[in-house]
Amino acid sequence: MIYDPRGTIDAPVLHLAKRPASLRGLRVGVLDNTKWNGWKVEDRIATILAQRLSLGTVTRYKKESFSRDARPELLAEIAAQSDLVLTGIGD
Amino acid sequence: MHDAIRLETAGIPTAVLVTTVFLHEAKVQREALGMIDIEPVVVTHPLSTLSNEQLDERAAEALDQIVRAWGATGK
Amino acid sequence: MIATKPEDLVEYYFEQAWSDGLPVVPPTPEKIDAVLDVLGGDPERLEAVVPPRRGGLTRNILAVNIVMAGCKPEYAPVVRAAMLALCSPAFNLNGIQATTHMVSPLLVVNGPIRNAIGMNAGHNVFGSGNRANATIGRAIRMILLSVGGGTPGDLDKSTLGSPAKYTYCIAENEEISPWAPYHVEHGMSPEDSSVFVIGGEPPHSITNHIADDAEGVLDSIVSAMSTIANNNAVSSGSCAVVIGPEHAATISKSGWTRHDVRNYLWMNAGNKFSALTFNDRYGKIYNRNLPRWYKREPDSRIPIVPSADDIHLFVAGGEAGRFSAFIPGWGHMTSPVLLRIDGTLANAAAMCEDGTCRL
User: Fold this and answer.
1) Structure confidence by residue, pLDDT tens digits, C204-215
2) pTM of this prediction?
3) In chain B, where the domains are located
4) Which of A9, C1, C39, C81 has the highest CB neighbour count under 10 A?
5) The complex's ipTM?
6) What integer is the mean pLDDT of A53-57?
7) Which domain holds residue A33?
8) Nearest to B29 among C52, C154, C157 (CB)
9) By C-alpha distance, which of C148, C248, C125 is closest to A7?
């Protein structure tokens, strides 16, 4: 008999958030994943896009630790204060 | 990916930057977590040893992808 | 399911993506049932979800991996408890599996179960030669590969890997140790059995054949800890120190306790900030992975870990030989986890989910 040691994945079915009709004036949250240089790229991108697309405010948030999930309280705060978010993984 | 998916579930369009080397991991994670439609924004690896000019190049790679990820044609 | 000769099965399993590169024991219904019996039956009961693939570790799948690794059924509770510890949020197994660092989970077992299942805490405690140590560690790695999907070059991005990624499991040598065992230091009773997991680099050997007092031995350990190249130096977090029995006897003869040892090591091990920044050769560096309360001045001493409690201290190894070992960790991105053998926390209040408290 052949055995498969991997087990099955029981993933939920999750859907993307609704997309806005226009980006103009929307508030952007930038979640810094605190990994070495990642935040610098995110920062530059956020600044360029805010000008180019006439976005609203850009607010930066910092995770406690890269590679860990952000705390639920932090994500709730970001969700309450942002219409769009930019974040990153890896380095 | 976990953070981005939780934010999308909370109703916030989220663009998640991933370097090329971690793209496969990002795709496996979106499947494992159940949000197969989230498209990462891909930039060239690595980021940790780059000069500011090189970081600007990475930013340029990402801009159009982010606008697409946020989903509107951006005016 | 096709009936196949065992030797063909061994070759078949070698070819699977989840193989660790060593031959596995082909499972049979009888072998699986023997493990399930020890676990308490209920084969579809979900014990854990293993990142990054998030495969479901049911008792059945746990048994398959335990058999394949070559474990005896009586090792099963240790493997189970270790997986519960590894899959708890504080450990961040997702990060450990994916990182480019060579970190691998080290399992340390305490309590009566060590002797009950024939673990080795003496000579060659880190290997090789003991079936329990070797196959328990291997079962964990196989689950990380198969259920967790952490296969090399795919989701496991470790640049170099490590021999510890074949197996990395020891028992503390409670019998020869001059001090209380680790789990008793952390609030359990000696009759409890426990598992402790920490993400670790392979052991760095520490030789000291000169000192006949505590400080001398500990200064060698301090030296081993005080390198800029180990991950703790730049990423903070936790580490382990394993003191060999001869060294432990010398330290204890000077009257030093576990508390004294951990605090001496913490207080004296470290690097100058200027060494970590290469004297700003590449521009001014702040390093946000170090606690914000460290001073970032060139001559500031940067401790290897933020507190003496982040040094996890064990006595293990044979009674002959003046050697100890330093085991650096991965960094602040993971917290080690200590569980009773039944999977419950030592201190029910210690829910370290957000990293604001450590073990």
Assistant:
1) 999 999 999 999
2) 0.89
3) 2-70
4) C81
5) 0.89
6) 91
7) 28-86
8) C52
9) C148
